[in-house]
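Following up on my earlier message about iron/sulfur cluster. Here are the inputs again, as you asked, copied directly from the submission form:
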Amino acid sequence: MLRIISWIDYWYRALARWVLPYPYRRSGRCRKCGECCKQILIGMEPRMLRLRPLRNLAIWWNAYFNNLRLIGSFIEDGVMVFACNYLRADGLCGAYNLLRPVFCHEYPRLFSHFEEPVVLPDCGFKFSPRKLI
Ligand code: SF4
Ligand code: SF4
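Thanks, got it. Here's what our run produced:
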């Protein structure tokens, strides 16, 4: 059920991007290095993150539904850092076809129209400014 909701959210975002394109275009392809699966940053409002029950719920949620394990947190910055248990020793995804979370399908992506895109140093993807009218 959760996956269905995530996919509805995914298609809603795709539709929104189609109607109002981001000012950057993504190109390239994944080199399958696995680097982006080792430190996954998940943001939360710092005020919420300071509350231990909410923090624990977010940790449990990501462990249960996304198979992520917490490896660090920066509470005042509103960020938790997770690693993925699906990542294999050879750098490939152990859940590529069926189980990988929806956010993996979209990575790397922009989160807002005003964001400067960033990718990891040796990532096979890159962003370039889109020519707007
Ligand atoms: S599910 Fe696969 S692609 Fe997604 S973070 Fe884990 S190893 Fe990487
Ligand atoms: S860092 Fe880039 S090239 Fe490496 S696995 Fe992630 S998306 Fe693919």
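One observation from looking it over: The chain has a mean pLDDT of 90. Hope that helps, and feel free to reply on this thread.
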